[in-house]
Amino acid sequence: MKVLLIDGYNMLYRARAGWAKGENPIVFTFFRSFRAAVNNFKPDMVYFVLEGRPVKRIEMLGEYKAQREYHDKDDFRRQRKLIIKMLKEDFPVHVVRHPTYECDDVLANLAYITHKDDECTVISSDTDFYQMLQNHKNIKLYNPIQKRFIEAPETNYVSWKALKGDSADNIPGFPGIGNKRATKLMKDPALLEEFLMKEGHREKFERNRVLIEFHDMTIDLPDIERTFGKANWSDIFDTFSKMEFNSIVNEKFWPKFVNTFDSLV
Question: How many domains does the chain have?
Fold first, then answer.
């Protein structure tokens, strides 16, 4: 089985950068991109994975992701809610979320456990997913911005990132450790051990590793919230028509749009 796993908020936020006009430009850009992804990879099954609250990581590091600022100047919240509602109710895709785990954890565990024997493709520009490529041959990672598949890093990605930190998630690295120095340490076990022997370094390094590494959800997988919508194309057509998405609902393109999702289970 071919399984497509989409980092939901990653795709939603990319839709903010679209060129479309009107009252619902994010909705338009999103569904053009969403349809293109499904059409390009032709999966048998699609997961659209949403964010939960990272309870365990916040308990470990109170300032985890606390620096992020959000704005709604482009009416993103309303359009985001509408997109998710449409996916849940009217598209044959699995919309999933766990209330106390991040999207990354849920997506990884679906690939690691639920679909360990299937061909999995992940769509995201989030570099945290690089760690999935090092021990799981059934998983591919496609970067939609670079429009290419990502190769597995040469060194252990989790340890490498634990050294340099992650400003996007507000995980502090070690002073003076950038990409090159982290790579040098990872390629020389003796040098890395010497570095970790310094006061406080090992504890910080191990904490960062736990923050960055995807958490095992074996026990919690049954608690994932999931919906699978019915292919309600008449309602979608009416909604898109009212929003004046003419390039989607025209006679030539609309059948192609619908056919893209026909084989999904």
Answer: 2
Name every residue whose Cβ is closer than 8 Å to that of residue 230 and which is 6 or more positions away in sequence. Answer: 89, 90, 92
d(C-alpha 76, C-alpha 70), whole Å: 10
The CATH number that applies at residue 246 is 3.40.50.1010
Task: Say how far residue 265 (Cα) sits from the centre of its chain.
Answer: 21
Q: What is the pTM of this model?
A: 0.95
- In this structure, is residue 236 part of a structural domain? yes
pLDDT digits (tens, 9 = 90+) for 102-137: 999 999 999 999 999 999 999 999 999 999 999 898
Residue 32, Ramachandran bin (φ over 0: left; ψ between -120 and 50: alpha; else beta): alpha
Say how far residue 107 (Cα) sits from the centre of its chain: 7
pLDDT in tens, 172-231: 999 999 999 999 999 999 999 999 999 999 999 999 999 999 999 999 988 999 999 999
Is residue 81 domain-shared with residue 208, that is, in the same domain? no
CATH number at residue 196: 1.10.150.20
Q: Render 81-119 in DSSP notation, one character per residue.
A: HHHHHHHHHHSSSEEEE-TTS-HHHHHHHIIIIITTTSE
Which residue range is the domain that position 234 belongs to?
2-153+215-260
